TrEMBL record:
<dbReference type="InterPro" id="IPR000873">
    <property type="entry name" value="AMP-dep_synth/lig_dom"/>
</dbReference>
<protein>
    <recommendedName>
        <fullName>Acetyl-coenzyme A synthetase</fullName>
        <ecNumber>6.2.1.1</ecNumber>
    </recommendedName>
</protein>
<feature type="domain" description="AMP-dependent synthetase/ligase">
    <location>
        <begin position="87"/>
        <end position="473"/>
    </location>
</feature>
<dbReference type="InterPro" id="IPR045851">
    <property type="entry name" value="AMP-bd_C_sf"/>
</dbReference>
<dbReference type="Pfam" id="PF00501">
    <property type="entry name" value="AMP-binding"/>
</dbReference>
<dbReference type="InterPro" id="IPR025110">
    <property type="entry name" value="AMP-bd_C"/>
</dbReference>
<feature type="binding site">
    <location>
        <position position="504"/>
    </location>
    <ligand>
        <name>ATP</name>
    </ligand>
</feature>
<keyword id="KW-0436">Ligase</keyword>
<feature type="binding site">
    <location>
        <position position="530"/>
    </location>
    <ligand>
        <name>ATP</name>
    </ligand>
</feature>
<feature type="domain" description="Acetyl-coenzyme A synthetase N-terminal">
    <location>
        <begin position="27"/>
        <end position="84"/>
    </location>
</feature>
<keyword id="KW-0479">Metal-binding</keyword>
<feature type="binding site">
    <location>
        <position position="588"/>
    </location>
    <ligand>
        <name>CoA</name>
    </ligand>
</feature>
<keyword id="KW-0460">Magnesium</keyword>
<feature type="binding site">
    <location>
        <position position="527"/>
    </location>
    <ligand>
        <name>CoA</name>
    </ligand>
</feature>
<dbReference type="InterPro" id="IPR011904">
    <property type="entry name" value="Ac_CoA_lig"/>
</dbReference>
<dbReference type="InterPro" id="IPR032387">
    <property type="entry name" value="ACAS_N"/>
</dbReference>
<dbReference type="GO" id="GO:0003987">
    <property type="term" value="F:acetate-CoA ligase activity"/>
</dbReference>
């Protein structure tokens, strides 16, 4: 181990830096230029995509609470689908755009060329048009990780429809509320979603969801596994059959840079999920640039992001970023542990993956199963590793570095959010000294500031701690919440006036490197999935035996954070293990399996202030098994409830 590694610093190798798009010197000059004159910087880099009509106005944004408005390249026009497909046809028609690896390794993988991508996307766009879907209409996608998910996103973009992908692990209720919130005209789903050898009944879930939606909504079904499903005459459409009969080419529609490309629902600290809106021009510029620079993507590389297209990571780094760059992107239907714990590495070997991008939770769970699973495979094609979604603990970073990276591949720890469209803080592999657990430095155009959480004072010293805000707009930023610009301003611009508030706490060290310390609001991060504690609480109290519930996060070895629920039952209801199981199952069906509480504690009472506000700080401490330092409990209406909660706490780890 080098002295620097011993000190926890991993500089880029000179070999890597020599061939990288960006080295340390270039990062310094480009970053300085990007913040000194953002409009000039992005005027130049906006040219990386094809415009139908060139922009003349580059940046027009205000973070002033009450007047928040964000526009980039506003008078330019383009089509995102044409940028991801058509513009590559001269050079890359026969290059593989998408490698599809099925759940079952015994089934053949598929290699979809750019020419096929154009044809399939066109066919699907023509089917959507035939069913009345046009510019500005919303289409909800509830699909497995299959090529049709990519075709569907790109088909919507092609005709100017706005897609909203709903992760296939969400329940019928969650699907219905998203369909209704954006008033979708059509839903695209599949019969079943195979994952880890099991099948989720997507069509049956969609049927249930559509009971609670307008009966005008069309349901386009991909017969993927071919298993039998119900069929509603005049509503359900056999998508693959209609695609086969449709015209193989569909012209693309000219869109404004600020026309919405997609809505993606994400959890907030209060209320129902928020419909994050991303628009066309700025988002694509940012997704493609971050994909190329952060991962140092070069022609001929095979890029694999293991996320699901139901999350923003899948949008930006399976579909839009890579395809805008003419890359070969890998799409994996399965899970890391099926048929065994070597699957990720088997897929890397089989498809000669160059860049591998996954979540710390996956690394931690594989780490627990032993490095033998990694050592069995030839990983010599790998050039770079990445992580996303939550802070990575140094043990997991070291395991990833040693066993997967063989100590020689750069690791990029990318901090960003559904709201940010692309990477915000990340090492650049040829430029930045990596430190296990730190997302290090801002990407071009990103101006992070650390504010004191309570006074909002700017922490000007390099070494500082506080909440992470961003001082000015960047092209990939969300523009609004669907149908609710007020809530958008409240959620992101009201706490720290003049700044975009990420919701995260952070520390900046003496080298100016950022370390994310986690959410400071009532959002928890479970296996890299974002969960609002309020959503789990409202699911619990919707159960007839539950009087009250409070949900907090607690440290979980594999998941990062686990879900800890305090539940007060209705008068006369017995707390039993079977009721605990019933409540777990209830939350699974209300929201989805990712929201299932890990621990449920029966709480005869919850700690409340005299005005009736639940003291979450105390509940968090008890859940963290840190009850020695509960702080001041004298303001509680009934301090004795705390003793009961401590005595019966579930997490004694
Ligand atoms: C939240 C955003 C961005 C795609 C995946 C999650 C946390 C994300 C990191 C990282 C520490 C991270 C933050 C953030 N987060 N990446 N590299 N290090 N924390 O998107 O569901 O919108 O969640 O994930 O807390 O606010 P998301």
């Amino acid at each position: 181990m080098s002295d620097q590694a011993a000190a926890g610093i991993y500089p880029p190798s000179s070999d890597f830096a020599a061939n990288a798009h960006v080295n340390a010197e270039l990062y310094a000059t480009m970053y300085a230029a990007s913040v000194a004159d953002p409009a000039a910087f992005w005027a130049e880099h906006g040219k990386r995509i094809d415009w139908i009509r060139d922009y003349t106005k580059v940046k027009n944004s205000s973070f002033d609470y009450g007047n928040v408005s964000i526009k980039w390249f506003e008078d330019g026009t383009l089509n995102v689908s044409a940028n991801c497909i058509d513009r590559h046809m001269v050079q890359r028609a026969n290059q593989t755009a998408i490698i599809w690896e099925p759940d079952d390794p015994a089934k053949p993988a598929r290699h979809i060329t750019y020419a096929e991508l154009l044809e399939q996307t066109s066919r699907m766009a023509n089917v959507l048009k035939a069913h009345g879907v046009g510019k500005g209409d919303r289409v909800v996608l509830y699909l497995p990780m299959i090529p049709e998910a990519a075709y569907a996103m790109l088909a919507c973009a092609r005709i100017g429809a706005i897609h909203s992908v709903v992760f296939a692990g969400f329940s019928p209720d969650s699907l219905a509320s998203r369909i209704n919130d954006c008033q979708a005209k059509a839903v695209i789903t599949a019969d079943f979603a195979p994952r880890g050898g099991k099948k989720t009944a997507l069509k049956a879930n969609t049927d249930k969801a559509l009971f609670d939606c307008s009966d005008k909504i069309k349901c386009l079904v991909v017969k993927h596994t071919g298993d039998q499903t119900s069929w509603v005459q005049d509503r359900d459409i056999d998508l693959l059959a209609e695609m086969a009969a449709a015209k193989p080419y569909c012209p693309y529609v000219e869109m404004g840079a600020e026309d919405p490309l997609f809505i993606l629902y994400t959890s907030g600290s209060t209320g129902r999920p928020k419909g994050v809106v991303h628009t066309s021009g700025g988002y694509l510029v940012y997704a493609s640039m971050t994909h190329q620079i952060t991962f140092d993507y070069h022609d001929g590389d095979v890029f694999w992001c293991t996320a699901d297209v139901g999350w923003v990571t899948g949008h930006s780094y399976i579909i839009y970023g890579p395809l805008a760059n003419g890359a070969t992107t890998l799409m994996f239907e399965g899970v890391p542990t099926y048929p065994d714990a070597g699957r990720f590495w088997a897929v890397c070997e089989k498809h000669k993956v160059s860049q591998f991008y996954t979540a710390p939770t996956a690394i931690r769970s594989l780490m627990g199963l032993g490095a033998d699973w990694v050592e069995r495979y030839d990983l010599s094609s790998l050039k770079l590793l990445g992580t996303v979604g939550e802070p990575i603990n140094p043990e997991a970073w070291n395991w990833y570095n040693t066993h997967v990276g063989k100590g020689t591949r750069p690791i990029v720890d990318t901090f960003w959010q559904t709201e940010t469209g692309g990477h915000m803080l990340t090492p650049l592999p040829g430029a930045t000294d990596a430190k296990p657990g730190s997302a290090t430095k801002p990407f071009f155009g990103v101006q992070p500031v650390v504010l004191d959480a309570s006074t909002a004072a700017i922490q000007a010293e390099t070494a500082a701690e506080g909440v992470l805000c961003i001082a000015d707009s960047w092209p990939g930023q969300m523009r609004t919440l669907w149908g609710d610009h007020e809530r958008f301003q409240e959620a992101y611009f009201s706490q720290y006036k003049g700044y975009y508030f990420t919701g995260d706490g952070c520390r900046r060290d003496a080298d100016g490197d950022y370390w994310i310390t986690g959410r400071v609001d009532d959002v928890i991060n479970v296996s890299g999935h974002r969960m609002g504690t309020a959503e789990v609480e409202s699911a619990l109290v919707a159960h007839e035996k539950v009087a009250e519930a409070a949900v907090v996060g607690y440290p979980h070895e594999i998941k990062g954070q686990g879900i800890y629920a305090y539940v007060t039952l209705m008068n006369g209801i017995e707390p039993t293990d079977s009721l605990r199981k019933e409540l777990e199952a209830w939350v699974r069906t209300e929201i989805g399996p990712i929201a299932k509480p890990d621990l449920i504690q029966w709480a005869p009472g919850l700690p409340k202030t005299r005005s009736g506000k639940i003291m979450r700080r105390i509940l968090r401490k008890i859940a963290e098994n840190d009850h020695g330092s509960l702080g001041d409990t004298s303001t509680l209406a009934d301090p004795s409830v705390v003793d009961d909660l401590v005595a019966n706490r579930m997490n004694r780890g």
